[in-house]
Amino acid sequence: MFIGTTFKDFLLRPQHGQVLSRTKENIDLSMPLSRNIILRGAPIVSANMRTVTGGRMMKAMSSMGCFGFIHRRYSKEVQAEKVREVKRSQSYIIENPLVIHQEAIIGEARELIRKKKVSGLLVCESPGSMKLVGVLSTRDIFGLDSELVKNRMSIFTELICGYQNISMEEAELRMSRRRVEKLPLIDDDANIVGLITMKDLKMAKQKPYTTKDSKGRLLVGATIGASGDYMERAELLVDTGVDVILMDIAHGHSEVIKLAINNFKAKFPGAELIAGNIATGQGAKFLMDLGVDAIKAGVGPGKGCRTRLDVRFGVAQLQAVREVYLATEGKVPIIADGGIEDDGDIISALLIGGASTVMLGSMLAGTDEAPGLVENGVKMYKGETSIEASLEEFNDDENLEALMDDVQAPEGQPRPVKYIEGGVAKVIRRIRGHLKSAVSYAGTKSLIDAQKKMVDTPWLYVNRRPLTEAAKKESFDR
After folding, report:
1. Which residues of the chain form CATH 3.20.20.70?
2. Phi/psi at 37 (nearest 5 deg)?
3. Which end of the chain, N or C, is more open, meaning fewer C-beta atoms within 10 Å of its C-beta?
């Protein structure tokens, strides 16, 4: 019943509601991004495109409990730096706190505090040592510049410390009991291994849905290809601390990606890897058998893509996502990539198609967090294989004629998208509200339960035939 269909060919039948209040009741929207990563804010992923996801978008998406993949059109060094910046941007554990040695003078400490805009310093035994001997706060630095730090600091025996793997709850308990704002972290030999501040703890608790690791750092995704410098890029990203890598090529059911995945897994056996794009059940089984941690599905449905127009290959997106779900039997999370025009399409992809998450491009490209300038109320959204996008990579050291030969048959196109005031947070809040409504209409209390209820027997919950044109007009023309 889903052959040749897409999201607007079906409506979901309302079920007996279990939710008393969509605003007051805690409706769970958690869904898996990959085997080992859960998104708790909303199952939304920003597209790995140069006009969608740079470092700023990545930080915003993870901060809201969603996700993204930093695009690979950066040089590998710049891409790794973007990963590093996002990882450092939030954490309740400061892994490399500022340190000064006890024989330094107060004038040095005061200047370091002013320059780094911090409220205090950990004090070590001697230059080059990391052994904790005290803490110096802003209230301790008033006095003669020439006075020694060791004469003004709080000494080690007066401190409350924690160990490296302390939980957020235990750290907060220790700090609250002793009414301190800082908790130095030390190893068995009293060497400094980190610092927790009450300010960072409170910030972490204010955002319970944030996509973060055990240390409170934002999770970060980045993109690689399957040829060229992809292994060097992957190595740099892994060394930088990326949490998951997306191996992204236009035709993911191919020997090219098979070789690349095998090489990647041989060198980085513990790294989380997502791969795509594919659009068939055979392609899904192919990637699943290669051991990927999630599959990205969709060939040609996006507004920035011309593959279906120009080469006539592709599968209608609802059919494609559902084929992939059935072929993998729900064993591997699926990212539905492309063809999403509104929030209702997201819900169809999740509840009917079987996707675990949905990737958005044009719906996010108009936000402040997306790279690019606002001109006359619009921003440019460019398909990754468009001539315009390819030429942005051209530099004087390259052969322009050779580059143009490679892009004479582009499968991407640029298009303007309306600028969205209020940033990406405004878009995600709206989507979260509609997802909560969908859970209520589905007769469940969580998004994953709504999917489990409907995805295996959709004919019980949707019209058995695609909507007529009159029904589509009644439903969608507003």
Report:
1. 7-90+210-476
2. -125, 125
3. C
Query: Strands across the sheet with 120-124, in order?
Result: 99-101, 120-124, 132-137, 154-155
302 marked among binding-site residues? yes
Catalytic residue ranges: 305
355 assigned binding-site residue: no
Provide the pLDDT confidence category of residue 397 given band limits of 50, 70 and 90: very low
Domain 99-206, what fold? CBS-domain (3.10.580)
| Token output for 224 | 């690689």
pTM value > 0.85: no
Side-chain half-sphere CA neighbours of 232 within 13 A? 6
pLDDT (average), residues 257-264: 98
Q: Is 299 annotated for ligand binding?
A: yes
Secondary structure of the chain: what % helix, strand, coil (to 5)? 40, 20, 40
- Residue range(s) in the chain whose domain bears CATH number 3.10.580.10: 99-206
φ/ψ of 382, rounded to 5, equals -120, 130
Residue 359, by phi and psi: left (phi above 0), alpha (psi -120 to 50) or beta? Answer: beta
Is 298 labeled as ligand-binding? yes
